[in-house]
Specification:
It is a single chain. The N and C termini lie far apart (about 35 Å). Helices cover about 50% and strands about 5% of the residues. The chain has one domain: Orthogonal Bundle (Transferase(Phosphotransferase), domain 1), CATH 1.10.510. With about 220 residues, the protein is mainly α. Helix 2 packs antiparallel against helix 8 and helix 8 runs antiparallel to helix 11. The longest helix has 20 residues.
């Protein structure tokens, strides 16, 4: 494996908290190309997150950790199975409890918890909604993950993070309610538009061709 002396995107976010719009654009353009290359090879990564985006000495990114890639097996599949079973049994009162916790903590609390949240083992924060629902899914799940990572780069925390993985699953299931900006976020309309085109139902989600043509990358 190539040595990546620049660390990873998570380390950069830990130090910086946020990236500028131009910095995020650079890394997301590279991430889009890397994801597309994985797809061209016939694989779906399924576990994209800042930890798995390495930064080489030359400043370009490298993807790593293909343990959940389709056609591979991983002990992490046990976590995935547990989350899927949980989502299948969700009731309306489960969401009411989540709303109560959010009202008490506030969206901005994500900034306060950020250093503690990094490198969380077995987190579904970046997982696409169709994976949790055990529906047939394909390479489009990776574009959802890119949208969540982009949000984290520009806002400072993952949009669906909660106190535990099951609460995160509940937020993903109701993503339309929880994919929102904190009051102090300064994000361009183009950036938010792209994220909404990635974090959405699979049938509406854009792929590499539309991503590369999106105004945010101009």
């Amino acid at each position: 494996m190539e040595f990546c002396g620049g660390g990873d995107l998570m380390g950069m976010l830990r130090q910086r908290d946020l990236l500028t719009d131009s910095e995020a654009r650079f890394y997301m353009s590279e991430l889009a190309c890397a994801i597309h290359h994985v797809h061209e090879l016939g694989f779906v990564h399924r576990d994209l997150k800042p930890d798995n985006i390495l930064i080489a000495i030359d400043g370009h990114i490298r993807l790593c950790d293909f343990g959940l890639a389709k056609s591979f097996q991983s002990v992490n599949d046990q976590n995935l199975g547990n989350w899927q079973k949980y989502v299948a049994t969700l009731r309306e009162e489960d969401f009411e409890q989540l709303d109560k916790e959010d009202d008490e903590n506030g969206v901005e609390k994500g900034h306060l918890d950020r250093k503690r949240l990094f490198s969380t083992v077995g987190t579904p924060d970046y997982m696409a909604i169709e994976v949790l629902y055990q529906k047939g899914y394909d390479k489009m799940v990776d574009w959802w993950s890119m949208g969540v990572i982009m949000f984290e780069c520009l806002v400072g925390f993952a949009p669906f993070h909660a106190k535990d993985p099951l609460a995160t699953c509940r937020k993903i299931v109701r993503y339309e309610k929880y994919f929102k900006l904190p009051s102090d976020a300064k994000i361009s309309k183009q950036a938010m538009d792209l994220m909404k085109r990635l974090v959405c139902p699979a049938q509406r989600r854009i792929g590499i061709d539309q991503i590369q043509k999106h105004p945010w990358f101009k």
